[in-house]
Amino acid sequence: MEARHRELAWLWIGERGRVTDSGLRQMLERRGVKAGVEHVRAHRFRHAAADAYLKRGGSDVNLEARMGWRSPTMIRRYAAANRLQRANDEHRRLAPGERV
């Protein structure tokens, strides 16, 4: 990409300037197909980031702040997929009976 668009304040910049939401969606889909990954969507990255953060022991409150969410509802939505696995992992790590 040429430096001609360097003055733009946008994170995603393409050949013709700012990349739109639609353009970003199309790019992710094309890259996903090329990589052999189906249904690549931007929100999948947020789901994965939330899950990884919580799995490593991050707090709900700090995750909410870092992601820019205004309520815990979003944490439940984005982190629901692997909630039981995280709970089981935490239980194995913390439950007294598991360390006997």
Explained architecture:
The protein has 100 residues and is mostly helical. The protein folds into 2 domains: 3-35, no CATH class; 42-99, no CATH class. It is built from 5 helices and 2 strands, in the order E-E-H-H-H-H-H. Strands 1-2 form a two-stranded antiparallel sheet. The longest helix has 15 residues, at 21-35. The protein starts with 12 loop residues before the first strand and ends in a 6-residue tail after the last helix. The model has no long low-confidence stretch (mean pLDDT 87).
Topology:
Layout lengths: L12 E2 L2 E2 L2 H15 L6 H14 L4 H8 L5 H6 L4 H12 L6
Antiparallel strand pairs: 1-2
Structural class: mainly alpha
Strand order of the largest sheet: 1-2
Strand content is under 5%
Question: What's the gyration radius in Å?
Answer: 19 Å
If helices are DSSP runs of H or I spanning 4 or more residues, what is the number of helices? 5
Order of helices and strands: EEHHHHH
Sequence stretches where pLDDT stays below 50 over 5 or more residues: none
Average predicted confidence as pLDDT? 87
Specify the overall morphology.
elongated
Main β-sheet, in a few words? 2 strands, antiparallel
Total domain modules: 2
Number of strands: 2
For the termini, the CA-CA separation is: 60 Å
Work out the helicity level: 55-70%
Features:
100 residues; 4% strand; single chain; two-stranded antiparallel ribbon; 5 helices; elongated; 2 strands
Short recap of the structure:
The protein has 100 residues and is mainly alpha-helical.
